[in-house]
Amino acid sequence: MNKNWRRMHVAACLAAVLLLSAACSSKNDSNGAGGAAANAGDSTDGSASNAMAKKLKITAFEGYWGKVQPSDSPGVKAIDEKFNIDYKPEFVPMEQAQQKIAVLMASGSQPDILGLEGVDSNFIKWAKQGAFLPLNDYIDKYPELKQIPKSIWDAVSVDGKIYGIPQYFHIKYMNSAIIRKDWLDKLGLQMPTNYDELLQVSKAFTDQDPDGNGKKDTYGFATSKGIDWNNRMGVYYDIGAWYHKNDQGQLIPGIISDDANLDRLKFMQEAYAAGAVPKDWPVMEYNDAKQIFWSGKAGIYYEGLPGSATQWKLLSENAPDAEVVPLPPFQAPDGTQGQPGMSGYYTMKTLSAKLKDDPDKIDRILTMVDQFMKFTPFDQRNPQNADFDWKQGGVDKGYTYANGVADLSTDTDAKQAARPTTFFTVQEWAPSDEALELDKGLPVPIEAAYAKAVVDLWSKPNFVYIDPFNSIHSDVFNEKFGALYDKMMDGETKIILGQEPLSYFDTLTADFLKNGGQAIIDDVNKQFEALGATGSWK
Question: For this UniProt entry, which residues form the secretion signal (predicted)?
Answer without folding.
Answer: 1-22
